[in-house]
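[audit] Reproducing an earlier prediction to check determinism. Same input, same settings, fresh worker. If the tokens differ from the archived copy the diff job will pick it up downstream; this log only records the rerun itself.
[audit] input (249 residues):
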Amino acid sequence: MTRLANTTALITGGTTGIGFAAAERLIVEGARVLFTGQDSARVADAAARLGPNAAGLVADQAGMDFIAPLAAAVKERFGRLDTLVLNAGIAPLQTTLDAGEAAYDRLFAVNVKAPFYTVQALAPLLADGGSIIAVTSVLDQVASAGLVPYGATKAALRSYVRSWAVEFQPRGIRANAVAPGPITTPIYGKLGLDQATLEEAGKQLLTKVPMGRFGAPEEIAGIIAFLASKDASYVTGADIVAGGGWGEV
């Protein structure tokens, strides 16, 4: 299938998990992809595995210094952009009682501020009829103890999507979100939990999922490819929930 032939895409946070799977899928469907990651070794490894239709750029979303070089790289490599996938994010365990200010500020910088200013910088390069796709979370509409500020960041990103759908409609640019539930990605290994605690947390999480399993990054990548394609030409402002039923039933 080459429904994305002759198109270009930028994926933030594309070295592992959902971002990497999305890059693979978009390339298979004909797109050329630029992706970001904060670790130079992982960026190089992902670029090698993705092949000649992909290139990586090191970018740390905790600060805003990455945005101008990113926009310049997109302009130099592609000239224009058809699809922008806002995937990069962090998910620290934080409750209302234990969320320190520094960690809180970093969370909102990465998950809320960086996507907003990425869109601001790249909107002039987005082709008319292009697509903005934000990876949110089922936690943009349901709650989970221990991820209180994180859920708020995803709700903010979902709100951006609604506004972007209206703001960029005159140019035919669609803005949508995909809201994953628990997905088998490296993000869970970055929560600072030991293996036993992580496994127990996973079991507890699955009690909320009617399908009774974690999703695969490739399942989310398929939704991203759909939203990037003309098959979704009448879809904008949506938040497609892919949580195995969590938040839906």
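[audit] rerun output stored. Observation attached for the diff report: The beta strands are 8-12, 32-37, 54-58, 81-86, 126-135, 174-180, 239-242.
[audit] end
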